[in-house]
Amino acid sequence: MAVPKRRMSKSNSRKRRSHNSIKVSKPTYCPQCGTASPSHAICPHCGFYQGRTIVDTED
């Protein structure tokens, strides 16, 4: 069984794990009304998703 020869320092462990952090997702903009919304989700303002109206909103 493989065993490390020396103990890994805290700084080296933290450098290795630096890419595991959660990144903030960028909002996408609705092509119909221009409102920012999360990606792969129905627009909360107009109900538009993937080229068609999914939810009818009362304007």
TrEMBL record:
The keyword Ribonucleoprotein applies. InterPro entries: Ribosomal_bL32 (IPR002677), Ribosomal_bL32_bact (IPR044957), Ribosomal_zn-bd (IPR011332). Keywords: Ribonucleoprotein, Ribosomal protein. SUPFAM superfamilies: Zn-binding ribosomal proteins. Residues 1-25 are annotated as: Disordered. The keyword Ribonucleoprotein applies. Belongs to the bacterial ribosomal protein bL32 family. GO terms for cellular component: large ribosomal subunit. GO terms for molecular function: structural constituent of ribosome. It comes from Gimesia aquarii. This is Large ribosomal subunit protein bL32. Residues 1-20 have a biased composition (Basic residues). One of its GO terms (biological process) is translation.
